[in-house]
Amino acid sequence: MVNSEKNKINILNSCREEITDEESIRQLDYIDKARSIVSKYEKELGRKPRACVVTFGCQMNARDSEKLLAALKLVGYEETDSEDAEFVIYNTCTVRDNADQRVLGRLGQCSNFKKKNPLMKIAICGCMMQEPGAVEKIKKSYRFVDLIFGTHNIYKFAELLYTTLCSDKMIIDIWEKTDKIVEDLPVVRKYAYKSGVNIMFGCDKFCTYCIVPYVRGRERSRNPKDIIRECEKLAADGVKEIMLLGQNVNSYANDLRKVDKDAMSFAQLLDEVAKVEGIERVRFMTPHPRDFKDDVIDVIANNPKIARHIHLPLQSGSSKILKRMNRSYTKEEFLTLAAKIRERIPDVAITTDIIVGFPGETAADVDDTIDVVNKVKFDNAFTFIYSKRAGTPAAKFEDQVPEKEVKENFDRLLKVVQETAKEQAAKLLGRCEDVLVEGVNEHDSSLMTGRMSNNTLVHFPGGEELIGSFVKVKLTECHGFYYFGEKI
Asked: Half-sphere exposure (CA, 13 Å, Cβ side) for 108?
């Protein structure tokens, strides 16, 4: 995104008149208090102090980071991409071990900046901090960190920021759980034309390989009226595409129905969000195959505003491995669901996640996964080598797969995934598609880059004035996972 576009973005919910939640108002009070301290830094430096937010992980983390950045900008920091700044915060992920290692590596490098800058504060938050032993590791090996907090109290960042600015000691605020949802907070969006909207938090599935239920907590759904109100506010601010976010979006309102049996379902919520004036495209991430009901398929099929893209995590095509993963469906049930989706929504793109090397997996199990790939013909698949996560049941399984065997199975699966994805993409050649223009092409400034409803990228000649608008593009060249085209 070009700088001129970035500078136009306003911070939503920064005025008391815009919000109704008492906790959000309380956090605005702390922003006011912190602003007086940061203004002193500005006088001392002769410039605005700088802040850098580094995000790891999923779209929900990215949305959280937009709130962290909003608070920092409101107190007087200037955003920078450099970690050589006066405030640096790492918003962490812990789904795979390499994410943890990347964070720790960045922390180590950041310590050198702090030695030269007495005003620098370093914070670390997010999923990794909810992991057993993570805080002790930071306290022991990274004592220069000023602030540590987790996922459940991220809404308290303004308060924690003020406390950190007033203290020379390490501030630690980790909650084991919460039933509180505070979303009416200041937010600065990365993009003017699209935005994520959290609809629920946590997960109740407890897949045996996954740390998410332990670090994000149990499922908690937002009130649908609050979600619609946020979408309306975003639309009024120029947003054209909404992505509804949750660890398992299609179990939305399961908790609300315990109190109100008529609580709005995910299908109904999708339909209501699509009705918001100004919103032209609605996406969602991530559903679970077990909970993907016919009513959701029907709503997508009947509403052209809802993106023709469904990310449906498979994880494994072996019923034996799926059972060990506690995925609650079989290979046959997944194939039936995928076939139903393809039949009801012919122009849909189905993408997936696949894990290779789960404990006990054999070459025959990978053959089952390859069979599913061949039958479903995923438009793309994100393939991962199994990462053992301490605290999950699978980490204790004794039949871990040798690395050499995992690599061989991964390579042959990846080959099939790439072949089927290219085959699917080629079917669109010559078609005219609605494309949301996202920015100038990174490699050729004469081209713009946009995204189709099915999530495929398209590059075509055009000018910066098109950013944030929908245009018709004829697809003229297929290059596997992206297209070149011509604006009509």
From this structure: 9
Cα separations in angstroms, 471 against 58, 190, 212, 242: 28, 21, 38, 18
> How many residues are listed for the chain in this entry?
488
For residues 86 and 47, give the distance between their C-alpha atoms in angstroms, rounded to a whole number. Answer: 11
pLDDT at 3: 37
Token pair belonging to 17: 């008149």
Q: What pLDDT, in 10s, does the model give residues 321-357?
A: 999 999 999 999 999 999 999 999 999 999 999 999 9
Which candidate, 70, 294, 329, places its Cα nearest to that of 89? Answer: 70
Bridging pattern class, strands 121-126 and 171-173: unpaired
pLDDT digits (tens, 9 = 90+) for 25-37: 999 999 999 999 9
| Distance separating alpha carbons of residues 201 and 195, to the nearest angstrom | 17
- Residue recorded with tokens 């077990």: 290
Q: In this model, does residue 1 exceed pLDDT 50?
A: no
Measured CA to CA, the distance from residue 86 to residue 110 in angstroms comes to 11
Tokens of 26: 């309380």
Quickly count helices (H) and strands (E) in the chain.
Answer: 14, 21
Residue 442 in contact with residue 424, Cβ under 8 Å? no
Give the separation between CA 220 and CA 235, rounded to whole angstroms. 25
| Planar angle of CA 427, 446, 449, nearest 5 degrees | 40
Contacts of 16 (CB under 8 A, 6+ apart): 25, 28
Residue 51 and residue 120: Cα distance in Å, rounded?
9
Q: Give the DSSP letter string of 396-442.
A: G-S-PPPHHHHHHHHHHHHHHHHHHHHHHHHTTTT-EEEEEEEEE-S
pTM, to two decimals: 0.90
Residue 2 has pLDDT above 70, yes or no: no
- 91: Cβ contacts below 8 Å, ≥ 6 apart: 53, 54, 55, 56, 57, 61, 64, 65, 68, 125, 126
Q: Which residue, among 202, 118, 215, has the nearest Cα to 174 in the 3D structure?
A: 215
Instruction: Please give the angle made by the CA atoms of 41, 42 and 48, to the nearest 5 degrees.
Output: 125
Under DSSP, is residue 446 helix (H, G, I), strand (E, B) or coil?
coil
